[in-house]
Amino acid sequence: MPPLLEMVISHRVGDFALEAELVAPRGPLVIIGPSGAGKTLTLRAIAGIISPRSGRIVLNGRVLFDGGARLSLPSQARRVGYVPQEYALFPHLTVEGNISFGLRGLAGGEKRRRVDELVALTGLSPQRKLRPRELSGGQRQRGALARALAVSPDVLLLDEPFAALDVPTRQTLMDDLQRLLAQTNTAAIMVTHDRNEALRLAEYVAVLIGGRIRQAGTPAEVFGSPSDEEVAAFVGVETIAAGRVRELDDGVPVVDVAGHSIEGGSGVAQGDEVLVCLRPEDVTISLSAQASSARNHLPARVVRVLPSGPYVRVELEAGFLLVALVTRRAQEELALATGTEVVATFKAAAVHLIRK
Asked: How many other β-carbons are positioned within 10 Å of the β-carbon of residue 1?
């Protein structure tokens, strides 16, 4: 079976240069990156809304664009369904009118059957006679999905599909999207800036920063072993500290960082300059050193405590900035506040090293 996407494209818009190269296997692909990274531009190139200056795009084994051969299939021939950020439903048409718009080639009975199938599949049967202005944000999103699926596309392209929705609606729609993709046997490529959406939906993740794919792999590979400092920061690594590998102890690196010895990581040699990366959820806090299997126990001082949804983000001064994520109950029980002296603990397996 061919990869879902093989892409090498070069394009420029003003001062921004997109130089994206990616080979992604089948399964939901999520391209993540900050605002202005080129995510929408990349998706529009796959959809055929724009033609890159040069390169090649192959989707499901079909060549959609080849700059060298001067080949660029029109959007309607690419067998993709496209859901833009703003949904782009026709305001003068009802839900069923929007869905049937792309089915003009079908006979009347077949068209009605297909519309009935899609409004039922997306849970929009009660709203089928309503116009977009009469729908909630979640209902408009379902309408956009139904319209994109109407033509039975090989691949569904989604541009920040949940960005304008509240958290409960977003969670429900992510479940709906997974169900729809499974029921219709449709592949998907989604772009988003939200790493939680990527973790929830993706089988393969590509990180796009500054117009370039900086890392690609499974969610575990990308989020657990970021390739460089910018990728690490984007995927939620909040502790990034410079150090030097002093030795390997039975193969485990021992890194000197701001007067501390930190054990963990892999793939480095003695003397290497490295960045020590830790996710906040991997750091625990206590008021004194306690016996545990964790190899790293660092004295630290609380410098800031910030609410973070149901958790609390605790910033620690340990000779470098060390960030932990704890429950509200833990904060209260430990009386964590600015100036509190604590011990930060983390396992060697939680440490990721990036060679500088």
From this structure: 7
